[in-house]
Amino acid sequence: MKPELFFMLASLLFSIGLVGVVSRRNLFVIYMSIELMLSAISLLLVTFSKVLGSADGAVMALLMIGVIAAEAALFLAIIIHLYRRNRTVDSDAYNGLRQEANDA
Amino acid sequence: MLELSLFSALALFMLGGSVAMILNTQPLFSAFGFLVAMLGLAGMFALLESQFLALAQIMVSVGAIVVVSMLTILTVNAKEENLPYEPYKYRWIIFSALLVSPLSLLMYKSMTLLHEEFNGIDVVDTKLIGSMLFSKWVLPFEIVSVLLLSAMVGAIVIARKKRTKVEER
């Protein structure tokens, strides 16, 4: 096994997540794409921990799982709050800040 | 050889799941693709010989995050007309994939230039991770615990219903 395979997988996953964030308008899909990008980075950390022969990367990935959980909780709460206001999960519907800037 | 075939199967699962995640219109099917990708990631951690991380990944990502996302999707229960209208979805996805692919290639090439081989170390077992977590990494560990607490409080505050004037009296 070569580490290149893991590097390739991590970069592909990160790119798929980036494509999802850029091209979709569903808030849930954007949320899951962000999670996928973070997970790709944690895979990269574990791979480097094995490549460099120290457990630091693995500990960092463990802490990162905690950060991902915190991000998930906040993002889902924000989605529920936004859906309660406008009854849609379209990210283009939430442009309240832009309109206020135009009015002023 | 066994490792390579395991890796290929898991990688196919992960890539297929994540592509299904960004292609599906219904968010629940996207969540299933995300579930497959997270399970594949746990398998990858096991393949990289850090069993504790694989277990933590299954417990936190699959058992908590994906389940909570699915619960939120089912609670929100957006009907077809409440979903965003995306007539040019595939066109946008192909276009942004073309834009992102050089970045992916750059990441892959630059990372492979760093190190060619795996360093032969012992298995990163739970004992090692635990002792490092409470000696060298104790400050980040505490920061993550404070972050989780504040995220919990923040999620409750954001997601609760706003009380009306009548209820406050």
Would you give an account of this structure?
The complex is a heterodimer of chains A (104) and B (169). Chain A is mostly helical and 104 residues long. Helix content of chain A is 83%, strand content 0%. Chain A has four helices and no strands. Chain B has a single domain, classed as Up-down Bundle (Four Helix Bundle (Hemerythrin (Met), subunit A)), CATH 1.20.120.1200. The mean pLDDT of chain B is 88.
Task: Supply the key terms.
heterodimer, A: 104 residues, Helix Hairpins, 4 helices, B: 169 residues, mainly alpha, Four Helix Bundle (Hemerythrin (Met), subunit A), 0% strand
Strand-helix topology:
The complex is a heterodimer of chains A (104) and B (169).
Chain A: H1 3-23, H2 27-52, H3 56-86, H4 96-103
Helix pairs in contact in A: 1-2, 2-3
Chain B: H1 2-23, H2 27-47, H3 51-76, H4 89-114, H5 126-133, H6 138-159, H7 165-168
Helix pairs in contact in B: 1-2, 2-3
A few lines on this structure:
Chain A has 104 residues and is mainly alpha-helical.
Q: Report the CATH topology name of chain B.
A: Four Helix Bundle (Hemerythrin (Met), subunit A)
* Coarse structural class of chain B: mainly alpha
In CATH, the topology of chain A is named Helix Hairpins
Instruction: Write the element-wise H/E pattern of chain A from the N-terminal end onward.
Output: HHHH
- Which stretches of chain A of 5+ consecutive residues score pLDDT under 50? none
The main β sheet of chain A shows up as: none
Could you say what the CATH architecture of chain B is?
Answer: Up-down Bundle
Multimeric state: heterodimer
CATH C-level category of chain B: Mainly Alpha
Radius of gyration of chain A, taken over Cα atoms and rounded to an integer in Å: 18 Å
What is the approximate shape of chain A? Answer: elongated
- In total, the number of domains of chain B comes to 1
Average pLDDT of chain A, rounded to a whole number, is 88
Give the tally of β-strands of chain A. 0
Strand content of the residues of chain B, in percent? under 5%
